[in-house]
Amino acid sequence: MSQVDAHEDSGFVARRFVLAEFATPEALLAGTHKVREAGYKNLDTHTPMPIHGLEAALGLGRPKIPLIVLCGAIAGACIAYAMIYFCNVIDFPINIGNRPMHGPPANIPITFELAILLAGGSSFFGFFTLAKLPQPYHPVFESEDFTRCAVDAYFLSVELPPEGEADKVFAEVQTAGALSAELVTESER
Amino acid sequence: MAAPNLSRDPLEPLPLLEGKHTDKTINDSLLEHVWRGAGKGWWALFACALSALSLLGIAIVWTLYKGIGVWGNNIPVGWAFGIINFVWWIGIGHAGTLISAILLLFQQKWRTSINRFAEAMTLFAVICALLFPLLHTGRPWFAAYWLMPYPSVQRIWPQFKSPLTWDVFAVSTYFTISLLFWYLGLVPDLAALRDSSKSKTKRMIYGLFAMGWRGSGRHWAEYKWAYLLLAGLSTPLVLSVHTIVSFDFAVSVLPGWHTTIFPPYFVAGAVFSGFAMVLTWMLPAREFLGLKHVVTLKHLDNMAKILLVTGMMVTYGYVMEHFVAWYSGNPYEYSEFFRVRQHGPMAPIYWLMMFCNCIVPQIFWSRRARTNILVLWFASILINVGMWCERFTIVITSLHRDFIPSKWENYSPTWVDVSLFIGTIGLFSTLFLLFLKFVPAVAVTEIKELRHELDHDPTAETAGVTH
Lengths: 189, 467
Known about the structure:
- The complex is a heterodimer.
- Chain A contains 6 helices and 4 strands.
- By secondary structure, chain A is an alpha+beta fold.
- In chain A, helix 4 packs antiparallel against helix 5.
- By secondary structure, chain B is an all-alpha fold.
- The radius of gyration of chain B is 23 Å and the shape is globular.
C-alpha cells in the first residue's frame, strides 16, 4: 500500500504563506497584533532589524537562550576543574616542594576561561540550533519582494493550513494595515 | 573639518547620525564601499601590506628552519620582542571588545557606529598576537604536547599552576569568543549584502555566509539574547585575559614585574592602545569609505575622551609603580625604577613612553583637539608607539639589569625580530584591508535600529542626541 502511495504521490505538500508588507515597524507591530487576535497562530515577521515588542505581538514565550548559556557555563566550569584535578591529582601527581597536589586558587583562571568558552559557544550554537539555521531554502524566499527583507521592508507572514483559504487571510492583513500582500508557495525540489 | 564644529553652540551635543535617513539610504550608503571596486589607494595600501606580510613569511620560515636562536634573546633577556609584540597586539585587541561588549552593556549608543570595525580589529590583532607564543616554542607542531592538555602516552600534562598555561586558555578562549561574537553580529548584515547584491555570484557567496537569514521575528527574539549574553560574557573575559597576561609578569619575582598593580594597569593600557589603534584606522576609513554620516565628530570626540581617561589611568599606574618602588625600601626595585629605567641604556625608550602615554593624551582636554582629524591621527599613532615602548620597558629593561651585576647583559633585536614585528603589522593590515573590501565596516542593522530609535526619541529631536 505504501509502495503505491509513494509512486502516486511523493508525500510533498507545498507549504503556503501569505506574505504581507507593512510600511513601518509600528504598522507591522500593530498589524501583527490584529492578525493574531483574529485567531491566526502560524505567524512570523521578517524585518531588517529587531523590533521592540514583536515577541509579545507574535505571542512568543520566554527566550530559551539564557538557560542554554547557563548550562554551558556550568558545564565548562565543571569540565575544566575536573580536568585539572584529574591531571594533577589522579593521573600524574608530581610533588613539587611539597605543595598540595590540589591547589584550588591556581585552578580559578582556567575554570573561569572554560566556563566562558562553553557559555559563549552554547550561546552561538544554541541560537543557530534553535533558529534551525543554516537553512538555505524557505518558501518566503519565493517572493520577488523578499529581496528587500534585509534592506528596508517589514513583512508579516501567515502560514496557511493545507486546505485553508488564502482570500480570508488577504482580507485580514488588508484590514490590519498591510501595504500589499501576496501568496507564496513552497516549490518542490 | 573643524568649521561646522566651531560655529556650533558648545553646549549643544554633536549628532550621532548626520542627515535625514531612511533604512534604504543607510543600507545603500554603508554597503556602497563593498560594491564599489577597489580604488588605486586600496591597491597601493594592499601592496604595502602584502610586502610586509611576505617579510613575515620569510622571518617565520627562517625562525622555524634555524630555531629561535636567530632572535636577539639572550640570558638574562630571555623574553624579548616575542612577548613585547604579543602583549602589544593583545592589548590592541581589547578595545574592540570594550567597544562592542562593555559599551553595549552601558547602553552607549555611539558604540554602534564603530563596533563592527573594532571587533574586526580585535580578531586580527589576536591573530597577530597568537603568532608569537606559537613561534617562541620553536617547534610549534610539537607545542600541542605542552600547551594543551593533550593525552599523549608520555602522560605529561601542562603545568596548571603556571600563568603561562592560563594564558593559553585565556587567549584561545578570547579569540574563539571574539570570532563568534563578530560573526553573530555580522549575520543580518550579510543578509543585507545578499539582498542588495546585483550579481548572482555575489548573491550566492554572501547568501552562503548569511546562512539563510530571513529576519524572522522568532529568530530575532532569541538572537537578541544570544548577542547580549555574548556581550555579557565578553566583558569579564576581556578583563580576565589581560589580567592573566599581566600575571605572566607579576607572578615572577623580578624587580619591575613583581607588583600587584599590574592587572588593572595592564587592562587600562590595553584599552588605551586599542582605542588609539581604532582611531588610527577609523580616521582614514571614514574619509575614504564615505562613513562620515555615521562616524561623526561626536564619535571622535568620545573616543578622544576615552583616550584621555585611560591615558591618565596608565599614568597613575606609572606613578604608583615608582611610588611603591621608593616606599617599599627594596633596593632592587628602587634601582630598577629610579636608576636603570631613567638613566640606563634603554632610558630613551622609557622617556619616549612617558612622553607618548602621559603627555600626548593631555591635548584632549581641548575640544578643538578632540575634533581635529589630524591631531587625533598623529596622537593615536604616538600612543601606539608609546604603548609599544611601555611593553619594551617592562620586558627588556627589567630583565637586562636584575639582581647581580655579573648577570647584566645588553639587548638588541636581530633582523628576524624586527621583520616579525613589521610582518605582523603587514598581516594585520592585509586582513583589515580585505575586511574593508568585502564586509561592511559599520554594523548596518544596528545603525538602522539606532536611526529608528533616534527618530522616535523626543529628546533626541529637540536637543540633539545625548550619550
